[in-house]
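Exercise 7. Given the encoded structure of a 97-residue chain, write a plausible sequence.
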């Protein structure tokens, strides 16, 4: 039996994806918020539903460098076991040459 593809839906604040840019001393800051869900159920597999909220800040130092800060709150709802959640913090640096 071939499993059905898992559907993932993502919804961001203000419909699809909203970015707010603020100018700080010739540097640019981008803020984003996202809500996404993943249905983990399929026929006899009852994985529940995984939802997460992501809040992020991207700091563009110049045209070639940025630093990203993310906070993710992931929540899993299951039918037969207790719900669980986790908090994730992430920092990334990117240099483009």
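Solution.
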């Amino acid at each position: 039996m071939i499993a059905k593809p898992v559907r993932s839906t993502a919804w961001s604040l203000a419909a699809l994806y909203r970015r707010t840019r603020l100018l700080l001393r010739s540097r640019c800051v981008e803020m984003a918020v996202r809500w996404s869900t993943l249905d983990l159920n399929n026929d006899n597999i009852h994985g529940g539903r995984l939802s997460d909220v992501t809040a992020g800040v991207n700091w563009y130092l110049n045209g070639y460098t940025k630093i990203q800060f993310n906070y993710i709150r992931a929540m899993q709802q299951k039918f037969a076991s207790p719900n669980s959640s986790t908090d994730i913090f992430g920092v990334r640096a990117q240099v483009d040459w």
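Remark. The chain is about 0% helix and 70% strand. Students should compare their own answers with the one above.
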